[in-house]
Amino acid sequence: MPLLIPQVPQNFNGSWGESQAFEALCALDGEHAVFHSFSWLREKGQPGEADFVVAHPGKGILVIEVKSGGIEYKRGEWLQINTKTGYKKRIAPFVQAARSKYAILERLKSFLSPPDTPMVGHAVWFPSVSLSGIAALPPEADKEITLDGADLSQPLKAINRAFAYWERAARFKARLNKAQFGKVLDVLCPHFCVTLKLGDEVAAAERQYIRLTEQQFAILQLLAEQKAAAISGLAGTGKTMLAVEKAKALAEQGREVLLLCFNNFLRDFLKANCAPHSISCHNVHSLAYELLGKPELSFDAILAEFKAFLAGECNGWPYQDVIVDEGQDIDDDILCRLAKLCKSRDGSFYVFYDKNQFVGKNKLSSWLDSAECRLVLSKNCRNTMEISSTAYGIIGAAAEPSKISGIRPRVKFYSTEKELLDITEKFVQYAVKEQIPVNEIAILTAQTLEKSRFTAREAAGLEITNNFGEKGKLLFTTIRKFKGLEADAVLLLDCSLRDMAEEGAKRLLYSGASRAKYILRIAVREDLPEAEHEEYMNKILGGRDLPKSREGLARLFNASF
């Protein structure tokens, strides 16, 4: 049986003759390839279609036009007669066949050159009639290239007859080997599979995320009626976005607004997103240094003086309104004093926080617990459904995930530094291949930079930096420093099995996982001796009925491994 392209014809356009010709051609041997309904487009945009194209490495290519029903040739015109109605239709079968032949020749010549090019000829098949009694056919219709109903029973003989005619007429005898014939088939029917890169899908997903923020903007409207509020939400529910939008709204009223956070990276991000609005963006230390003007003091000393300043008359305090992001990380005394300060000046005080992300303290600020207006954000508008499921699953939290589906997170296990470097290299290669911008790729450690086992200075040929916002470089920093921020692709590393048994480590891992928008990989260090493995896995799994193994940990994280 020949190679059929397509393997199963869709239809024969109601043509009995075309279906009969197909059945006959199916009797050819495996050296032949038979194309049915071969469509083409010539250089000037002229479209066309050949009913059949038969290819053979030792004979060449034969284009066949099929015309069923009665046939008449009169005064230089071919007529096709409908056997049911008797209606006569003008046709030009040999012109059609020749046109398809030249279209195929053009395509072959544009992709191939001798000796890889085959001989190409054409023929017409009238399967409904017998031409045996016709004394002479028109000049364009030599008997060797004009097939009829009798040829349905001996298709190979008829095809060989037509091939022989064109070999003599064209004086061209191209014998192709298997590789050359394969090239011809690839030109006539190329194979390709184009899939969307993740980077191509990001823009569409971003538009969907915007539509998910209706709940968040409803809270913004509600805050117009409240002078002070504590707004809680799991990671990814839009806290930072709302903090920025509220700060902008107040600044547009001509008010002096302070947008306060805990870490340097988030402060720099907020500055970039608040420009050109007249909003002051600080973390606690940079605010203290600016207000008190004592650059010689240490972090601890300036913090102590700042608390004393807030407890006093606060002379020189320039702000009417204060908005705090990542409020769970701000010192309790500072939050309480800022709240009183804003109230005394008839200003607004809003704190956005996630009780699951306070990794440096044992409990939340007393002000967050006692705030009169407490609002909750419950809809994820940052992460894909799969990533939010992983992040929330780590701490056993429940929230409404986004409805944007993506790639399932993966957990990788390692014991040596070499294995860790290999995991990192493959992660970066994958993200780059998926067309994720370099500045949207983050490598985050659960340890400090000094204690991390990751020592590489580059990955996949890209330079690594510890500084936020360096264009063209991969960011490697800590989960703590990256809190409040996000990246399209995130790799978490130095996640120790021993540490993971502690609630603080789980909260840190949750915070890191929730930074990822589209790609998340978690590299887990297997640092438990066999004798302690079951004890620690029980603590990590939290009594859940899961295997005490790699598989169980991956299932806890809703990830593959």
Please explain how this structure is put together:
By secondary structure, the chain is α/β, with parallel strands linked by helices. 36% of the residues lie in helices and 22% in strands. The chain has helices spanning 16-25, 93-111, 155-170, 178-188, 198-211, 214-223, 239-251, 264-274, 284-292, 299-311, 332-344, 366-370, 385-395, 417-433, 503-513, 530-541, 550-556, and strands at residues 3-5, 33-41, 47-56, 60-66, 70-74, 77-81, 88-91, 120-126, 146-148, 228-233, 257-261, 279-283, 321-324, 349-353, 374-377, 410-414, 441-445, 458-459, 462-465, 474-478, 487-496, 516-525. The strands form four sheets. Strands 16-22-21-17-20-19-18 form a seven-stranded mixed beta sheet. Strands 1-2-3-4-8-9 form a six-stranded mixed beta sheet. Strand 6 and strand 7 (88-91) form a beta hairpin. Helix 13 (385-395) packs antiparallel against helix 15. The radius of gyration is 37 Å and the shape is elongated.
Q: What is the C-alpha radius of gyration, as a whole number of Å?
A: 37 Å
For the termini, the CA-CA separation is 45 Å
Fraction in beta strands: 15-25%
Strand order of the largest sheet: 16-22-21-17-20-19-18
Give me the number of helical elements.
Answer: 17
The computed structural class is alpha/beta
What does the main sheet amount to? 7 strands, mixed
Low-confidence stretches: none
Give the integer mean of the pLDDT values: 88
Helicity, as a percent range = 25-40%
Total beta-strand segments: 22
**Overall outline:** elongated
